[in-house]
Amino acid sequence: MELELLKEAIVSVLKVYPGEINDDTTFIGDLGADSLDVYQIVMYLEDALHISFETEDIKQISTVKEAVDLIKKAEKANGNA
Fold it and tell me: Is the per-residue pLDDT at 18 higher than 90?
């Protein structure tokens, strides 16, 4: 579920084809995202999942897999897992 929602957010913000997104896809290198794009993706996820992310955690992610792991961590911390 996390990966599908993340893909939805990425497609919505970056206007990329979902087939371009896999676990190893990098936000900046592969998808061409900048910091504002990442912020918009994070906001999309926070609104959709009713969770919040720590700013320091967000700065550490570079791949889709890392983002999925962060979503799972945030869900657990917010009691949504």
Answer: yes
Output Rg (C-alpha) for the chain, integer angstroms: 11
Torsion sign across C-alpha atoms 74, 77, 79, 81:
positive
| C-alpha to C-alpha distances, 21 to 14, 40, 50, 67, nearest whole angstrom | 11, 17, 24, 12
For the whole model, what pTM was predicted?
0.89
Q: Which amino acid is at 46?
A: E
Residues acting as catalytic residues = 34
CATH of the domain at 20: 1.10.1200.10
pLDDT recorded at residue 81: 56
59: domain range?
2-77
